[in-house]
Amino acid sequence: MDAVVEPLRKAATADHVRQAPPAPSPRPSREEAQAAVRTLIAFAGDHPDREGLLDTPKRVVDAYEELYRGYREVPADVLDRTFSEIGAYDDLVLVRDIDFSSHCEHHMMPFMGRAHIAYKPVERVVGLSKLARLVDVYAHRLQTQEHMTWQIATAIEEILNPRGVAVMLEAEHMCMSVRGVEKPGSSTITTQFFGSFRDNPDEQVRFITMVRGSDR
Question: Which residues are catalytic?
Protein backbone atom coordinates (compact mmCIF):
# COMPACT_ATOMS: atom_id res chain seq x y z
CA MET A 1 0.00 0.00 0.00
CA ASP A 2 1.51 3.30 -1.09
CA ALA A 3 1.30 6.25 1.24
CA VAL A 4 1.36 9.79 -0.04
CA VAL A 5 1.31 13.17 1.60
CA GLU A 6 -0.97 15.46 -0.33
CA PRO A 7 -1.08 19.27 -0.06
CA LEU A 8 -3.94 20.60 2.01
CA ARG A 9 -6.95 21.93 0.17
CA LYS A 10 -7.80 25.59 0.57
CA ALA A 11 -9.67 26.35 3.79
CA ALA A 12 -13.43 26.36 3.44
CA THR A 13 -15.56 27.03 6.50
CA ALA A 14 -13.70 25.82 9.59
CA ASP A 15 -10.44 27.51 10.56
CA HIS A 16 -10.10 25.09 13.49
CA VAL A 17 -9.14 22.31 11.06
CA ARG A 18 -5.94 23.83 9.69
CA GLN A 19 -4.48 25.71 12.61
CA ALA A 20 -4.10 25.41 16.34
CA PRO A 21 -6.17 27.84 18.44
CA PRO A 22 -4.35 31.14 19.00
CA ALA A 23 -2.85 31.39 22.47
CA PRO A 24 -3.88 34.27 24.75
CA SER A 25 -1.52 37.20 24.68
CA PRO A 26 0.29 37.52 26.94
CA ARG A 27 0.18 33.89 28.04
CA PRO A 28 0.66 33.50 31.81
CA SER A 29 4.00 32.08 32.90
CA ARG A 30 4.35 28.77 34.75
CA GLU A 31 5.08 30.71 37.92
CA GLU A 32 1.85 32.69 37.54
CA ALA A 33 -0.10 29.49 36.86
CA GLN A 34 1.33 27.83 39.97
CA ALA A 35 0.44 30.91 42.04
CA ALA A 36 -3.13 30.62 40.74
CA VAL A 37 -3.28 26.98 41.89
CA ARG A 38 -2.09 28.00 45.35
CA THR A 39 -4.87 30.58 45.46
CA LEU A 40 -7.46 27.96 44.54
CA ILE A 41 -6.16 25.60 47.22
CA ALA A 42 -6.58 28.35 49.80
CA PHE A 43 -10.04 29.20 48.43
CA ALA A 44 -11.04 25.54 48.84
CA GLY A 45 -10.14 25.85 52.52
CA ASP A 46 -6.74 24.19 52.76
CA HIS A 47 -3.22 25.50 53.32
CA PRO A 48 -0.96 25.60 50.24
CA ASP A 49 2.12 25.55 52.45
CA ARG A 50 1.38 22.30 54.27
CA GLU A 51 3.67 19.40 53.41
CA GLY A 52 1.23 17.38 51.31
CA LEU A 53 0.39 20.37 49.10
CA LEU A 54 3.80 22.02 48.64
CA ASP A 55 4.40 20.43 45.22
CA THR A 56 0.76 20.34 44.15
CA PRO A 57 0.85 23.59 42.14
CA LYS A 58 3.74 22.29 40.03
CA ARG A 59 2.02 18.95 39.50
CA VAL A 60 -1.24 20.64 38.51
CA VAL A 61 0.51 22.83 35.92
CA ASP A 62 2.34 19.79 34.54
CA ALA A 63 -1.00 17.97 34.30
CA TYR A 64 -2.57 20.94 32.50
CA GLU A 65 0.12 20.80 29.83
CA GLU A 66 -0.78 17.16 29.22
CA LEU A 67 -4.56 17.43 29.54
CA TYR A 68 -4.79 20.45 27.24
CA ARG A 69 -2.11 19.59 24.69
CA GLY A 70 -4.78 19.80 21.97
CA TYR A 71 -4.33 23.57 21.96
CA ARG A 72 -0.88 23.01 20.43
CA GLU A 73 -1.95 20.48 17.79
CA VAL A 74 -3.35 20.94 14.26
CA PRO A 75 -6.11 18.50 13.22
CA ALA A 76 -5.18 18.69 9.53
CA ASP A 77 -1.72 17.34 10.33
CA VAL A 78 -3.31 14.17 11.70
CA LEU A 79 -5.22 13.42 8.48
CA ASP A 80 -2.71 14.51 5.84
CA ARG A 81 -1.36 11.01 5.11
CA THR A 82 -3.68 8.86 3.00
CA PHE A 83 -3.54 5.53 1.18
CA SER A 84 -4.75 4.71 -2.32
CA GLU A 85 -4.78 0.90 -2.52
CA ILE A 86 -8.43 0.27 -1.69
CA GLY A 87 -9.41 -1.50 -4.91
CA ALA A 88 -13.04 -0.95 -5.83
CA TYR A 89 -14.14 -0.48 -2.21
CA ASP A 90 -16.94 2.09 -2.11
CA ASP A 91 -18.72 1.48 1.20
CA LEU A 92 -18.32 3.08 4.60
CA VAL A 93 -15.36 2.74 6.95
CA LEU A 94 -16.42 2.62 10.60
CA VAL A 95 -14.26 2.89 13.71
CA ARG A 96 -16.30 2.55 16.87
CA ASP A 97 -15.62 2.61 20.61
CA ILE A 98 -12.82 5.18 20.55
CA ASP A 99 -12.33 6.02 24.23
CA PHE A 100 -11.78 9.68 25.05
CA SER A 101 -11.73 12.03 28.02
CA SER A 102 -12.16 15.78 27.86
CA HIS A 103 -13.08 18.71 30.13
CA CYS A 104 -16.23 20.77 29.89
CA GLU A 105 -15.67 24.46 29.34
CA HIS A 106 -18.39 25.41 31.84
CA HIS A 107 -16.99 23.84 35.01
CA MET A 108 -13.60 22.47 33.84
CA MET A 109 -14.72 19.05 35.02
CA PRO A 110 -14.10 15.82 33.08
CA PHE A 111 -16.48 14.16 30.68
CA MET A 112 -15.57 10.73 29.36
CA GLY A 113 -16.97 8.37 26.81
CA ARG A 114 -16.63 6.83 23.38
CA ALA A 115 -16.59 8.19 19.84
CA HIS A 116 -17.86 6.34 16.77
CA ILE A 117 -16.77 7.58 13.34
CA ALA A 118 -17.75 6.49 9.83
CA TYR A 119 -16.91 7.94 6.44
CA LYS A 120 -17.32 6.91 2.80
CA PRO A 121 -13.94 7.32 1.11
CA VAL A 122 -13.34 8.54 -2.41
CA GLU A 123 -10.32 6.69 -3.85
CA ARG A 124 -8.23 7.17 -0.69
CA VAL A 125 -8.47 6.20 2.98
CA VAL A 126 -6.72 7.42 6.09
CA GLY A 127 -5.01 5.17 8.63
CA LEU A 128 -7.54 3.95 11.18
CA SER A 129 -5.43 5.12 14.13
CA LYS A 130 -5.56 8.65 12.72
CA LEU A 131 -9.28 8.87 13.42
CA ALA A 132 -8.62 8.04 17.06
CA ARG A 133 -5.82 10.61 17.08
CA LEU A 134 -8.19 13.24 15.67
CA VAL A 135 -10.61 12.61 18.53
CA ASP A 136 -7.76 13.10 21.00
CA VAL A 137 -6.74 16.44 19.47
CA TYR A 138 -10.17 17.94 20.06
CA ALA A 139 -10.74 16.15 23.37
CA HIS A 140 -7.61 17.68 24.88
CA ARG A 141 -9.16 21.15 24.92
CA LEU A 142 -11.93 22.77 26.94
CA GLN A 143 -15.05 21.59 25.15
CA THR A 144 -18.74 21.08 24.91
CA GLN A 145 -19.73 17.67 23.60
CA GLU A 146 -21.84 19.23 20.87
CA HIS A 147 -18.99 21.38 19.58
CA MET A 148 -16.49 18.53 19.72
CA THR A 149 -18.82 16.30 17.67
CA TRP A 150 -19.13 18.97 14.99
CA GLN A 151 -15.38 19.67 14.95
CA ILE A 152 -14.48 16.00 14.40
CA ALA A 153 -16.98 15.63 11.57
CA THR A 154 -15.93 18.91 9.96
CA ALA A 155 -12.24 17.99 10.00
CA ILE A 156 -12.92 14.68 8.23
CA GLU A 157 -15.24 16.38 5.74
CA GLU A 158 -12.78 19.10 4.82
CA ILE A 159 -9.54 17.13 4.71
CA LEU A 160 -10.65 13.76 3.30
CA ASN A 161 -13.51 15.11 1.16
CA PRO A 162 -15.49 11.83 1.44
CA ARG A 163 -18.97 11.10 0.13
CA GLY A 164 -20.31 11.14 3.67
CA VAL A 165 -19.32 11.49 7.32
CA ALA A 166 -21.07 10.26 10.47
CA VAL A 167 -19.91 10.96 14.02
CA MET A 168 -21.51 9.90 17.31
CA LEU A 169 -20.22 10.73 20.79
CA GLU A 170 -21.52 9.10 23.99
CA ALA A 171 -20.25 10.51 27.28
CA GLU A 172 -20.85 10.87 30.99
CA HIS A 173 -20.28 14.37 32.36
CA MET A 174 -18.85 14.71 35.85
CA CYS A 175 -20.40 18.16 36.21
CA MET A 176 -23.75 16.37 36.13
CA SER A 177 -22.69 13.20 37.97
CA VAL A 178 -20.83 14.53 41.03
CA ARG A 179 -22.24 18.04 41.41
CA GLY A 180 -25.41 19.91 40.54
CA VAL A 181 -28.20 17.39 40.01
CA GLU A 182 -25.83 14.53 40.98
CA LYS A 183 -27.10 11.89 38.56
CA PRO A 184 -24.25 9.37 38.07
CA GLY A 185 -24.58 6.98 35.16
CA SER A 186 -26.52 9.33 32.92
CA SER A 187 -25.11 9.66 29.40
CA THR A 188 -25.29 12.27 26.67
CA ILE A 189 -25.36 11.31 22.98
CA THR A 190 -24.58 13.70 20.15
CA THR A 191 -24.42 13.08 16.38
CA GLN A 192 -23.29 14.95 13.29
CA PHE A 193 -23.93 13.84 9.69
CA PHE A 194 -22.53 15.24 6.46
CA GLY A 195 -22.92 14.25 2.81
CA SER A 196 -24.71 10.98 2.07
CA PHE A 197 -25.35 10.35 5.77
CA ARG A 198 -27.07 13.70 6.14
CA ASP A 199 -29.09 13.31 2.95
CA ASN A 200 -30.24 9.72 3.46
CA PRO A 201 -31.99 8.81 6.75
CA ASP A 202 -31.52 5.11 5.91
CA GLU A 203 -27.76 5.64 6.03
CA GLN A 204 -28.08 7.23 9.45
CA VAL A 205 -30.05 4.21 10.66
CA ARG A 206 -27.45 1.86 9.19
CA PHE A 207 -24.64 3.74 10.92
CA ILE A 208 -26.38 3.70 14.30
CA THR A 209 -27.23 0.00 13.89
CA MET A 210 -23.61 -0.85 13.14
CA VAL A 211 -22.43 1.23 16.11
CA ARG A 212 -24.82 -0.54 18.46
CA GLY A 213 -24.15 -3.98 16.96
CA SER A 214 -25.56 -7.28 18.12
CA ASP A 215 -22.59 -7.91 20.41
CA ARG A 216 -22.92 -4.79 22.54
Answer: 104-107, 145, 173, 175
